[in-house]
Here is the input.
Amino acid sequence: EDQVTQSPEALRLQEGESSSLNCSYTVSGLRGLFWYRQDPGKGPEFLFTLYSAGEEKEKERLKATLTKKESFLHITAPKPEDSATYLCAVRPQGGSEKLVFGKGTKLTVNP
Amino acid sequence: DTGVSQDPRHKITKRGQNVTFRCDPISEHNRLYWYRQTLGQGPEFLTYFQNEAQLEKSRLLSDRFSAERPKGSFSTLEIQRTEQGDSAMYLCASIQAPRLAGPLDTQYFGPGTRLTVL
Here is the structure.
């Protein structure tokens, strides 16, 4: 069964304190790993897609990396506006291309 | 900005009532997905459409749930005889599926419909 586990469940950082979020997965043929950001009461907002081990992508203070078993979302010098829940999802092989999500990591950045 | 839109944003209903939600995907996207998200969980797949055809349904989609996409554009999700366990955020996402075995695209989500069943 396709599974995604995210850790930690919650993370509190001080502004400027860099850290990483983890997403480990088991999937029957990976056709993409996705990171989304979700603010309270809103839909997920797309951040990154990674397709193969060794791939990295960056956007502002965020950097996503991928290995064969896990992905990391590195947050460098975070700001309070980075506070949100970060969701990781995988797209297994199969016609529907549905996403299988983890439970998310709730990030709080204090000023 | 013509992103995915959903209506209504919030719905409060009494147990046993029927409710219907609407999703308008990004205009050129031919695939539309419905997900459900409960508090503290990630979204879970419910069903998806390729144009007007409903091609897969999750076992989470009980007989009380029905979804349509009659003209291959907007979609509706109806829940009959609502139960308190149906309280959740219902999310819609769309994607342009490649015609050939080309690069895979990203699903873009709407703002969701928050359902509360009293």
Observations:
- The CA atoms of residues 46 and 101 of chain A lie 13 Å apart.
- The interface with chain B takes residues 4, 31-32, 34, 36, 41-46, 49, 87, 89, 91, 95-104 of chain A (CB under 8 Å).
